[in-house]
Hints:
The complex is a heterodimer.
Chain A: E1 5-14, E2 17-27, E3 32-36, H1 43-50, E4 58-63, H2 72-78, E5 79-82, H3 94-102, H4 111-117, H5 133-145, E6 151-155, H6 163-178, E7 182-187, H7 190-196, E8 199-204, E9 207-212, H8 214-219, E10 225-232, H9 237-241, E11 246-251, E12 256-260, H10 263-276, E13 280-288, H11 291-299, H12 303-315, H13 323-329
Parallel strand pairs in A: 3-7, 3-8, 5-6, 6-7
Antiparallel strand pairs in A: 1-2, 1-4, 8-9, 10-12, 10-13, 11-12
Chain B: H1 7-20, H2 23-43, E1 52-57, H3 62-70, E2 75-80, H4 82-90, E3 94-99, E4 105-107, H5 115-129, H6 150-180, H7 183-188, H8 194-224, H9 232-254, H10 260-277, H11 292-297, H12 299-311, H13 321-341
Parallel strand pairs in B: 1-2, 1-3
Antiparallel strand pairs in B: 3-4
Amino acid sequence: MVPAIRLRGLVKRFEDVVAVDGVDLEVERGICFGVLGPNGAGKTTTVEILEGLQRPTSGDVELLGMSWNGRAAELRARIGVQLQETELYDKLSVAETIRLFRSFYPRRIDVAEAMAQVDLVEKRDAWVEKLSGGQKQRLAIACALVSDPELFFLDEPTTGLDPAARRSLWEIIRGMRSRGRTILLTTHYMEEAEKLCDRVAILRRGRVIALGTPRELIATLGAEEIIEVASEPALPADVYAAVPGVVACLPDAAGFRLSVHEVHETLPRLVDALRTRGARPSRLNTRTATLDDVFVELTGKSIGEEEAADRKARAAGAPARGWKRRTREAGDAG
Amino acid sequence: MKLSDQPLFQLFLVRARELWREPGVLFWVFGFPILLAVALGLAFRHRPPERQIVAVVQGADASAAAAAIGALEGLEARLADRAGALEMLRTGQAVVVVEPGAAPRFTLDPTRPGSRLAQTAVLDALERAAGREDRLQPSEETVTAPGRRYIDFLLPGLLGMNLMSGGVWGVGWALVLMRTRKLLKRFAATPMRRSDLLLSFVLFRVVISLVEALFLVLFGIVAFGLWPRGGAASLGGLVVLSALAFAGVGLLIASRAQNAQSAAGLMNLVTLPMFLLSGVFFSAGNFPDWMQPAVKALPLTALNDGLRAVMLDGRSLAELPLETGILLAWGAGSFAVALRVFRWT
């Protein structure tokens, strides 16, 4: 069976920026594939090229074995799309909105069934403007699934939602996957990718810097546990790196982040090492490693720090990297 | 396929629902033109013919002259010293100044409408008072026919103005909002036929324009006794053509505008000159000759001229090839360009 998505050497250049800088991806059918990365990494550009909304500067795009050239109408009928930041008509009800989108497709499911899949049956007559953020996002997904598509593109579906709304959206996405659909999901929440995705690609500055299952990527750290530590007085990194059992030591905002195999063996040795140098721990956390740690390992920064650094660079007048930012700055006033 | 599964029908419903569910918009479409017609209609309804003032310079024959002038219809004499009389002329209060006597002396500004007529009438009255014998016995019959009042002129203009702003704003504004809200992009990601969306806007404008016209015409009949003399088909045809032309202009403005402010600016830029130039409140014929070709080429001028020809002169659409042609050209031209340059994302 041909893969759901095949991307070869994808490049997208805007006047002064390279948003996507040579991306290769292959997504097999029936899985949930996560595209991860900080804002401005090129996620949305990549997805919009896949959705046929932007043309690549160069590279090959194939969905379900078809390319966008000449078969656009057929492809649009077979994919379901949820865009970042779409605002549906305020004065239309949930059912009316779904009926509208449904009318565009040759193959379609019942309005009632679409509402049931996203748990909006009770809101069927409520106007869009009266819905909460989570309900609006569920309605956007309902509009994507009215044609019962084989392939879904969800662009940051949970950004800005509260934890409960986010979890309910996760359930809907899991339901889509369990019905055998292929889902490509972008997010900058690493936790979300770990919970939902079978495979992930981490994007940074328009390139794929890591690709695999979440478990594989975490395994590349060489250790599954993390100790976050800081001491009073502060000690240099080599002191921590020398503690037996510490696989890697990276600085973070408040101290250091140590990768270890067995917390219960390494922790007493760490405390001993501090004590022999006359220091005491001012911070000591232990947790299992996440994709966020993978990002730190690969880039030396957490996603949040990278975004903050980008913001600072922009404030200092450096050219913006992501196309999204540029268009926002250009005055998306409406 | 059921009607409710037709994309064009669904898109048309969106337009209708957005209008119907937004009371503010309903007011601008139906309430505003009627309020305007009521206000202006009341202002110009029962006004006796204006009396123009003749300043009579005080002197020996002044009061006799003033009495003779006061007897004339439409003129009123005011006594003043010479300086005061000239001041009245300068400020526009008086239309002519006269110093009576054996050699009456007139002071007037001939560019002021009515001043020559007043001069002739005053001279006539003074001659008669001095004993001139008239040799002819004229008689007259006055006619105030419906169709020649100001409100008769105004109502078609208001209808035209409303059809223009409704078309340009109704289409342009809604489309730009859809772009800034990323709805156009969302639609572009579906197999929806792009022409269906644009067609839904045009069809809705056609329907709503006919309703607006019906509303204003009925109002004219009820409130001012203004029965259109031309046929309903000609009136309807003109309204439909204008809906196409103005929807096209709105579409053209919205085809590239990336945000609401620049779209609003463009729409004002297009509609405001037409309010002034296209004969809504006064005849476009008042503009100098060199401007006339440009003024006549505006779609609102064509519509207003056409509406007046049908409503007041009882002409049919077939007798108005110029107006029909201009509206058709605007509609076809703007659609052709807009479809080429329209941006979905």
